[in-house]
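Go through this chain.

——
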Amino acid sequence: MSRTRVVVVGAGFAGFQAARTLSRTLRDRAEIVVLNPTDYFLYLPLLPQVAAGILEPRRVTVSLAGSLPRVRLVLGEATHVDLADRRVHYTDPESGTGELEYDRLVLAVGSVNKLLPVPGIAEHAHGFRGLPEALYLRDHMTRQIELSADPATAASRDSASRRTFVVVGAGYTGTEVAAQGVLFTDTLARKHHPPNGHARGAGGVRRPRWILLDIADRVLPELDPRLSSTADRVLRQRGVDVRTGTSVKEATPAGVRLDDGEFIETRTLIWCVGVRPDPLVAEVGLPVERGRLLVDPRLTVPGHPDVFACGDAAAVPDLTRPGQYTPMTAQHAARQGKVAGLNVGASLGHGEQRRYEHHDLGFAVDLGGAKAAANPLGIPLSGPLAGAVTRGYHLAAMPGNRVRVAADWLLDAALPRQSVQLGLVRSWSVPLDTASPELARVPGGPSKEQ
């Protein structure tokens, strides 16, 4: 290698900020490489709005090539880190393999869905961690409402199961998915089930049923009880059946069985129980804390001064709460990424190293429409004011697309929301030879979509 090479693995909140800071700090004095499965940074907090049709998909993505000057992007997923040889092995999007040598390594691989040992979950639940999942869910919900509107089957159990949506996990993601989802499906139902009953066999609006489950004793259990109370009230006012202290015992193609024995017939089980660190972290062979790589306050791995870790991949000492580690939030990840970038630069002789220390500035949960729950600087807010603060926070936190996002919000407030399928679930429309069994098996959706 002709120049010092810094490899950043992952381009989530932590990796993106680390790469951007390195680009500004080192400029052309080192080669900066980002290894990531996609060519964009995903602003995860607004993903529920993509699923609900408020934002177009590209609004929540920021091009890595366009926003990280002097940074080389390598498309791929890390599979192994060789600390002795200073190499990162990876698989590219077309199943090829490669490796990257490094002088400095920043591990920011983030997190993945947390799966519990519940029979049927992996086969029958919809995840919600990426753009493809959000788009798939939007198509799926649209299709279920449209199929349930068939006058010939509108009163059947099959139609009722299509209009039933179950969300497991009442944390940030699950709460927002339920809050946005119920508004989205209510709008669809009004279009396809005329309230005056003009459609033959239609008995008026058949409102979709939404159920939000969590083993905790309240929604948003990790937040201030006042925010939890606000979110719970809004959800119940919209007709969401909030069930706390409840878990899933089994998932089947026909529905979900709860731990109290009740069986809920549904075609839609949305899995939002939380996240866990990417398995790659534990396979590096270094000490971990609940799957997160142990680092010092400067985000350096003890015994390996050339390796840094941040975000969900790292167990970072919380200097504001001695003896504890910073929680796995986007707020911490973004700030840790910046500190990691500065400290990598300092290790190469550019700037001074610093310790990571950050006090939470508050939290914001978008509940759809003009509703939200927020506590900026510890001040609890609800209603339209909280909604304005929440959207203002997202615009400030996004590293790009702010004007486009704001424009979509304005259009959504002024115009009817578009509700058509984009062809992301299984369809009978296939290219070329429709008689071919091989071509007829179109990927993209589970068998229950047939």
Summary: The domain at 5-113+276-347 is CATH 3.50.50.60 (FAD/NAD(P)-binding domain). Residues 196-203, 434-450 have pLDDT under 50 and may be disordered. DSSP finds 13 helices and 26 strands in the chain. The CA atoms of residues 112 and 341 lie 23 Å apart.
